[in-house]
């Protein structure tokens, strides 16, 4: 005996009632379709940002990959309220900072965040973020102990 195929029944949409959580789009606006990711290499401004990294006391322990022309945010915590955190961003393993002398300040809870926006023309390659809290310290080993790093791999858009 051969199996027979039965066509699936045609379903009619149910009318929306006053207690129905679905609210149809207003007349003239298209219903939202399924999410279609952008082609590889194009930023998706509507996507939640995963471009956040928290620098670590050990170089290479944390890192992030970021497209040229986009932004990323560094975060940290455990600082004194109002404490200045120096922020440097430049080619990996150099003392050169592309962004110059920049600072973030700890909030009342001791946290900070600092967003770096990359130029669309930045060369792809290995970069790094370094933070330090030098204020009130004698220098040398005292400042070195406050340093935190994150590696940043910049890729072409």
Apparent shape: elongated
How far apart are the first and last residues' alpha carbons, in Å?
59 Å
- Please estimate the helix content: under 10%
Which superfamily, in CATH terms, is the homologous superfamily of the domain at 52-155? Immunoglobulins
Largest sheet: 5 strands, mixed
Strand content: 25-35%
What do you see in this structure?
It is a single chain. The protein is 3% helix and 30% strand. It is mainly beta and 157 residues long. It has a domain at 52-155: Sandwich (Immunoglobulin-like), CATH 2.60.40. It has a five-stranded mixed sheet with strand order 2-8-7-4-5, with no helix packed on it. A three-stranded mixed sheet has the order 1-3-6, with no helix packed on it. The model is unreliable at 27-48 (pLDDT under 50). Residues 1-56 are annotated as: Disordered.
Key structural traits:
five-stranded mixed beta sheet; elongated; mainly beta; three-stranded mixed beta sheet; Immunoglobulin-like; 3% helix; 157 residues
SSE layout and pairing:
Layout: E1 52-53, E2 63-67, E3 71-76, E4 84-91, E5 102-105, E6 112-117, E7 125-132, H1 141-144, E8 148-155
Parallel strand pairs: 1-3, 2-8
Antiparallel strand pairs: 3-6, 4-5, 4-7, 7-8
